[in-house]
Structures are given as structure tokens and as C-alpha cells.
Structure prediction request, 118 residues.
Amino acid sequence: GFLGIRIENVEPGKLIASFEVTDEMITMIGNMHGGCLSAFCDHVLGVVLYPVMPEGSWAATTEFKINLLKPVSEGTCTATAEVISMTRTTAVVRIDVSNGDRLVAAAQGTCLIMAPKS
Prediction:
């Protein structure tokens, strides 16, 4: 899958996912590019919604913000995503990303919930 992301645990409104940092993700200064964490957060932002949306619906990210708190250079990045607000048409999701025992990113985003076409 995308970035080698693995879904570790899913329950309604909550998700844990992870990926391994690879050499291709590391910049010339020895840290993973922040875009990898951004893409990871954007991915889980939508995926966490599927168990709680009406069947056939899909989620489209309309905005998200990420704070890159600490550099990452190796190991596993794990995201914990939680739906913190949801209406019929939108959802807000909070995501924390850890690398080992370090919190390395905090993100929050909004998705538009698209109903299935009749």
C-alpha cells in the first residue's frame, strides 16, 4: 500500500496505523522529509472515517494542519487517529504520530463526507 502503511487496529472512530522509515525517505541532512509524515497523516485522516460513515460514502480531505515536533531518521512511525467531531457531511480528526516513544507530529484535519451516488 501507499508508503507501506499498515493498519494495526481499527475500531469505530479510532485507528492505529504505521509505516517503516526507508532510505528513500531520508533527506541529505539525515532526517525523513516532513512530506512523508504529512502524507501519512492525510491518509489515516480519511481511512479512520470509513467504519463510521454510511456504506458507500467516501471521505475527501478539505484541510489539515500538521506540527512537526521532532525529526525522524529511522524506525517505525505510528499514527493514532481519532474522530473528534462528526456530522452528516463533515468530520474532524486528530492524529498523533510517534517514533518509538517520542511524539514526532500532531495533526488535525477536516474531511468532507461524500454520500454515495444514487
